[in-house]
């Protein structure tokens, strides 16, 4: 009975982890779409960013939900990693990691930590200055400032390189994470293969777009 309860709790944790991951995937799609506008139109990017930055629903509802989703996803990832290790206290007599699982699946915790560090850099570059601008200094709204602020961050080749490496690791993380999420949610039907292909495509296209945007502003401004 107790073993069954533990199994059910483990399944619930994996489903919660999967749902939080899918939620963050949705956010990434919106985020890259907004950033991609900056490649084509400075004015439209400024308008869209200003709307996002001063919309009460986004600022006071969606933003806290997003922050909770990020924290929950990473905490649950650590919990499940520790749980999986504790479930196999005795190591294999001979373990060939590359033969049993891909590098990505074996190092999700590493790519996750790198992404977490990247989020810290991203907050330092954009979110903290935004909070200081609007709520600490109380500066009057300026709907023309966003493009210049974005471009300025990508002048530094080291910062741009860090962003690009982080996005590549994000792609590897998503590559395994998407298929793992589908498995955790029990999606083993005629649509699962199609959804897996969509997930793999997403894991390549979205991080690649982030890299292209960063390199575009580094070399063109």
From TrEMBL:
The UniProt record lists the keyword Transmembrane: yes
One GO term describing the cellular component: membrane
Keyword entries, A-Z: Membrane, Transmembrane, Transmembrane helix
Keyword GTP-binding on entry: no
Membrane-crossing residue ranges in chain numbering: 21-40, 60-82, 103-124, 160-178, 199-219
Entry protein name: Succinate dehydrogenase cytochrome b subunit
Coiled-coil annotated spans: none
Gene3D superfamilies xref list: Fumarate reductase/succinate dehydrogenase, transmembrane subunit
Organism: Flavobacterium flavipigmentatum
Organism domain of life: Bacteria
């Amino acid at each position: 009975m107790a073993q069954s309860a533990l199994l059910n709790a483990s399944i619930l944790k994996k489903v919660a982890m999967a749902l939080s991951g899918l939620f963050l995937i949705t956010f990434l799609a919106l985020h890259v779409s907004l950033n991609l506008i900056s490649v084509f139109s400075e004015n439209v990017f400024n308008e869209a960013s200003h709307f996002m930055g001063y919309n009460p629903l986004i600022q006071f509802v969606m933003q806290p939900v997003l922050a909770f989703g990020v924290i929950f996803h990473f905490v649950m990832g650590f919990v499940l990693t520790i749980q999986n290790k504790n479930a196999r206290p005795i190591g294999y007599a001979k373990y060939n990691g590359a033969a049993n699982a891909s590098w990505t699946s074996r190092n999700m915790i590493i790519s996750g930590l790198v992404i977490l560090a990247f989020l810290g850099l991203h907050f330092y570059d954009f979110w903290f200055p935004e909070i200081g601008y609007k709520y600490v200094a109380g500066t009057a709204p300026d709907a023309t400032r966003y493009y210049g602020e974005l471009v300025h961050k990508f002048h530094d080749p080291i910062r741009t390189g860090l962003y690009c490496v982080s996005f590549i690791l994000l792609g590897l993380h998503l590559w395994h994470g998407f298929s793992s999420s589908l498995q955790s949610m029990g999606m083993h039907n005629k649509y699962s293969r199609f959804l897996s292909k969509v997930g793999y495509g997403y894991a390549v296209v979205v991080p690649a777009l982030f890299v292209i945007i960063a390199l575009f502003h580094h070399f063109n401004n």
